[in-house]
Write a structure and sequence with these properties.
The complex is a heterodimer of chains A (about 450) and B (about 190).
Chain A (H helix, E strand, L loop, with lengths): L7 H14 L13 E4 L5 E5 L3 E3 L8 H11 L3 E3 L17 H6 L4 E11 L2 E10 H7 L4 E4 L2 E4 L4 E10 L3 H17 L8 E7 L9 E7 L6 E6 L3 E6 L5 E6 L6 E6 L5 E5 L5 E6 L5 E6 L6 E6 L5 E3 L7 E6 L5 E6 L6 E6 L5 E3 L6 E7 L5 E8 L2 E8 L5 E3 L4 E8 L5 E8 L2 E8 L5 E4 L5 E7 L5
Parallel strand pairs in A: 2-4, 2-5, 3-5
Antiparallel strand pairs in A: 1-32, 5-6, 6-9, 7-8, 10-11, 10-33, 11-12, 13-14, 14-15, 15-16, 17-18, 18-19, 19-20, 21-22, 22-23, 23-24, 25-26, 26-27, 27-28, 29-30, 30-31, 31-32
Helix pairs in contact in A: 2-5
Chain B lengths: L1 H20 L6 H53 L3 E3 L12 H13 L5 E6 L6 H21 L7 E7 L10 H7 L1 E6 L1
Parallel strand pairs in B: 2-3
Antiparallel strand pairs in B: 1-4, 2-4
Helix pairs in contact in B: 1-2, 2-3, 3-4
The chains are: A mainly beta (about 450), B alpha+beta (about 190).
């Protein structure tokens, strides 16, 4: 999707259409709320000072709260509480650098919101490096064209933007992305979504299976599809417009692709046996999948234009869970050809296949990180199922979670975080863990079991 | 039966009536016509008796079929009460404990070739949903193979795997896991 900032409302508009057309299948449900369980201590303190507001009407969203929550959930930052702030500046010129440094705060985000009328607001913000400002006195000079000029290099970033009231949440995530990228050197993934399946009680729900998408933080939850039979394995198209998934609506597994904006859906496969585990190729032109039409579960790649199938594996064992490497040249998959399920990798050009996991009784559901350096899996050791990460160079495996019956790990597009499904107090819930394993959070919901999370690609 | 008796008495009564009406006695033609008529009536009577007999046989056969169907139905109902076989963790081989049950299903299905079944394969919630779909299919196919070897026609069987998506018992106790690792024979 090549959307400009102004195009943001396109998303909102399209989503409103989806809501209206699916109203009948919508049910009220609690918003996902992220509870951080581990990793705050290791995060870097930062101050997100509430932006100064000049206007008559009330603000549609608390912009700085969105930013602070994003940064906190990244596991890399610890935004300090309002009552710990020595002052509430709205611009660099008002910042008392020493006061912040005395508090141990290196970085301060300040800004202004001005109401322009007609549902329009002007936002400006500055990201201030307090340490650098202390050194230069806030007035660093730089040699340019043979003259010393004021460079103010302690202002890491400054932006100004006019947005509409419905764009506040998205713009909050954009500010978070900017701050995150400036301070970590890594692209932020705050303007992303997750797809997941909610399973409610058959006794109380006519359509207990629901495929849902929400902002990565659980806001704007929208129903894509409700069914009286299981829904499984949602997988995003690389443009973020479509989902492939498995539906049992006809009492057998079939693969569908659905446009999340127009809600138009197409049945892709209806072969005898299982039709399972769809995964879009990085170029969006093909769909890897698992079919057992030729006897037992094998990997296939379908060209989505010609609908022609290419068989990838040929083995009496179970081969499933294909996952694309970022370059589209290989697939990792789960196979029990060695007796127990382990992760293998097949080169799609040469067809050569090799086993890549050896630690633990089982390894399943493998995905390679976007930088091609790590493999994320569900690892079974001593009967416990945990999310683990294996370094693809050294082969070292590190268990990242301590939760119970972990499954379905999905990696954020910037490779910083893993979302997965786990059992918490007898209920299936979504959980987050950072790739280094230090930061952990739960996303509990009140009604139903939540499973099969899938993190979207970058949406902007 | 009443009707038949009435016809009989008519046949006897008619010649008497004609005799009384015609003192000069009937002509040869009249007698021949009368004999024809009587013969025709006798034939008709025979026909009716035959039809009645056929209806009786038919009714008896229907009754027999109904009894047989009733028996098949109760047999099927008895089988449906033991439609589940259980599997060991990450295994798909049919345990010998379930041979007797599967033999009963096979015998019934072989005897009733129009009877169709769906064999569902299920898993406990451990492992990933996608792997479990594959494992569930393997389990359902083990049950299918057993029935085929025991003489059931492949046209009677459909296999579907639900993996871990339709647990029989909620929760994560060993008991729940054991109850959920199952193959289910569903009569259609």
């Amino acid at each position: 999707m090549s959307l400009s900032l102004n195009g943001l409302s396109l998303i909102t508009k399209a989503f409103i259409c989806v809501i209206v057309s699916l109203m009948s299948s919508m049910t009220a449900h609690a918003k996902l709320e992220i509870i951080i369980t581990e990793g705050v201590n290791s995060a870097k303190p930062i101050a997100v000072v509430p932006f100064k507001y000049s206007g008559q009407g009330s603000l549609p969203e608390n912009l700085t709260e969105i930013v602070a929550n994003d940064l906190r959930r990244s596991g890399k930052f610890n935004p300090i509480a309002l009552n710990e702030m020595p002052q509430f500046p709205s611009a660099d010129s008002e910042v008392d650098y020493k006061a912040w440094q005395d508090k141990g705060i290196d970085t301060v985000l300040v800004g202004n919101i001005v109401e322009l009328g007609n549902d329009q607001f002007q936002i400006n913000f500055e990201l201030v490096d307090v340490l650098r400002a202390q050194v230069t006195g806030g007035a660093a000079k730089q040699l340019q064209d043979g003259q010393l000029i004021l460079s103010k290099d302690h202002i890491v970033e400054a932006r100004e933007k006019i947005i509409r009231d419905q764009d506040f949440r998205q713009y909050g995530h954009i500010i978070s992305d900017i701050v995150y990228e400036k301070l970590t050197g890594e692209r932020g993934a705050f303007l992303t979504r997750i797809a997941y399946v909610i399973v409610r009680d058959r006794e109380t729900s006519r359509l207990p299976f629901q495929l849902v998408i929400a902002d990565y933080d659980g806001a704007n939850e929208i129903s894509v599809l409700s069914s009286d039979e299981p829904l499984m394995s949602p997988s995003w198209s690389p443009d973020g417009n479509k989902l492939a998934y498995v539906s049992f609506e006809n009492k057998r597994s079939q693969i569908y692709i659905q446009d999340i904006y127009t809600t138009r859906r197409t049945r892709i496969t209806d072969f005898p046996g299982i039709n399972s585990a769809p995964a879009f190729s990085p170029d969006g032109k093909s769909l890897a999948m698992v079919l057992s039409k030729d006897g037992n579960p094998e990997l296939y790649i379908m060209n989505l234009e010609s609908r022609k199938l290419r068989r990838i594996t040929r083995n009496r064992a179970i081969d499933t869970e294909p996952s694309w490497a970022a370059d589209g040249k290989s697939l990792t998959f789960t196979s029990d050809r060695g007796g127990k399920p382990q992760i293998y990798r097949v080169n799609l050009e040469t067809g050569s296949t090799r086993r890549i996991t050896f630690d633990g009784e089982m390894n399943l559901g493998g995905t390679i990180t976007p930088d091609n350096s790590q493999l994320v899996v569900v690892n079974r050791t001593d009967g416990n199922y945990h999310i683990a990460r294996q370094d693809l160079t050294s082969g070292d495996m590190m268990v990242l979670t301590k939760t119970y019956l972990d499954e379905s790990p999905s990696i954020a597009p910037n490779g910083s975080m893993i979302i997965y499904s786990t059992l918490h107090e007898g209920k299936q819930v979504l959980s987050l863990v950072s790739l280094d394993g230090r930061f952990k959070a739960l996303l509990p919901v009140s009604d139903g079991q939540v499973k099969s999370p899938s993190w979207s690609p970058f949406l902007l | 039966m009443l009707q038949t008796r009435a016809i009989k008495s008519l046949i006897i009564a008619l010649p008497v009536v004609t005799l009384m009406a015609c003192s000069s006695g009937p002509s040869e033609e009249e007698l021949a016509a009368e004999r024809n008529r009587a013969a025709q009536e006798a034939a008709q009577q025979q026909e009716q008796q035959k039809a009645a007999e056929q209806a009786r046989v038919k009714a008896e056969a229907a009754k027999k079929l109904e009894v047989a169907q009733q028996m098949a139905k109760s047999e099927r109902e008895a089988l449906e009460s033991k439609q589940v076989v259980y599997f060991d963790f990450d295994r798909s081989t049919v345990k010998s404990d379930f041979n007797a049950i599967l033999d009963q299903h096979a015998a019934f299905l072989a005897k009733n070739p129009n009877q169709k079944v769906v064999i569902e394969g299920h898993c406990d919630s451990r492992g990933t949903p996608e792997y479990n779909i594959a494992l569930g299919e393997r389990r359902a196919k083990s049950v299918e193979t057993y029935l085929l070897n025991a003489g059931v026609s492949s046209s009677q069987i459909t296999v579907v795997s639900y993996g871990e998506e339709k647990p029989a018992v909620m929760g994560s106790s060993e008991y729940a896991f054991a109850q959920n690792r199952r193959g289910v024979i569903v009569y259609q």
